[in-house]
Amino acid sequence: MAKGDIRRLSFVEFNDSETGTRIIRLTPPDVINFRNYFYQKCFSKDGRFLLFGSDFDGLRNNWLLDLYTGESRQLTEGRGSSPHGAFLSADERSIYYVKLNSELRKVSLNTLEEEIVYRVPERWRGAGTWVPNSLCTKFAAMEQFDEDVVKDCTGWEKFQKQFRSPPRSRLISINGITGEAHTVVEQRVFMGHPMYRPHDDDTMGYCHEGPHDLVDSRMWLVNSDGSDARQVKRHRLGEACMHEFWVPDGSKLIYVSYSKSDKNRYICSADPESLENNIIMPMPTCSHLMSNYDGTLLVGDGAGHLEDVADQKSFNFQADPFLYLFDIRSRSAHKICRHGSSWREYKGNHQISHPHPSFTPDNKQVLFTSDFEGLPAIYLADLPNLSR
After folding, report:
1. Which carries the bigger pLDDT value, residue 59 or residue 314?
2. Of 35, 112, 188, 313, which is the most buried if we count CB atoms within 10 A?
3. For the domain that residue 346 is a member of, what is the CATH number?
4. What's the average model confidence in pLDDT over 377-385?
5. Number of domains in the chain
6. Does the residue 277 lie in any domain?
7. Other C-beta atoms within 10 Å of 260: how many?
8. pTM above the 0.85 mark?
C-alpha cells in the first residue's frame, strides 16, 4: 500500500457489560491500530478527522480517519514511520512525524507532499515523543548520543538498562520555519518528555527518565534559552511521580504521584510560575491522565502490571481494567467503562497497547486503545452527563 490509499472501516457499536456505556470500535482487532501519544493533537477541531497509527500495509504508518464516512487515508509509507508521536498541525493542513528516529517530517494533507523539517546530526539519535508549541512553529525534541543508546534489547528491559547506563541526552528546540535547532539542556542523564508550555514559548519541560522509584526529581522546567533549569518537585522519601502533562490552556502541569507507603494514587498539580505543588484528589490506580482544555475534567486509564519501577514488590497493587472520568470541580470520580487492555508489548514497542485516553473536542467521548478483543484497536466511549 502507498500514500493516498483508501481503506473503508466498519465501526462496531456495543455497550460495556459493567457500566452500560456505549462504546464504538473504530478499527478492526485483527491488525494493529493505535492512537498517538495522549497529549499530542489527533482530532481536528470539529471532531471529524482522527489521526492514528496502523499496520494495515504491513508496515507501521500514519492514517487519517473520517469519522463521518469511515474512510481512512494512508498519509505516510515505507519503513521507520513513528505514528506514536505524530500529530496534526495547529492549522490542520498537515501532520508531523519522526522518521527512522532521525528526521522530523511534515506531510501536507492536501497533496501528501512530504518535506524534512529537521534532520538529527550524525552520531545522535532522536528519542521519545517530540512536541510542538501551540502554533507548531517550534518543536521540543530529545536526542541521545548514538554510542550510548542501548541496542541489545527492547521494551521495558531496554528502559531499565538505559537508566543504569545513562546516555548523553540533550533537549533541543527546533525552528519549524528554518529547520535550525539549538541545545537547551545537555546532560549525562536518561532524559525524556520534551515539552513546550502551551502559549508560552519561553518555558520548556523535560524529565529525568527511568524507573519511577529510582528517580528522585523527575520533572523539570527550563527557559527556552537554556537558563534557569529548575525542579518542579523533589520527591518525598518513597514517592514516585509519572506522566506529567500540561493542561492545554497552559495553566498548570498535572502528574500522578504514588508511594510505597500508600496504596492510593494521587492526581497532583504544579504551578509553572511559583512551582507550588498540590494534591488535587486521590484516585484509583490510573497510569495516564489527560485533561480537557481548562483542566476541569480529567480522564485516566486503570493501570496494568507495573513495569516501570525497580522495586515491584513494594509498589505492588491490584490491576485496574477501567477508564475513569474525574470532575476536578467536585473532586469526584466516575467509572466510564472497562478498557481491558493487557498492556503487553507488540513488535518491541511497549506503548502500543497502552490505553492513553483523551477527550474528543466536544468533551462528550474519550478515545483510547485496547487489545481486549485481539490486537490493539481504537475505541470511543461515551462520557456520563455530569450536569444531571
Report:
1. 59
2. 35
3. 2.130.10.10
4. 95
5. 1
6. yes
7. 16
8. yes
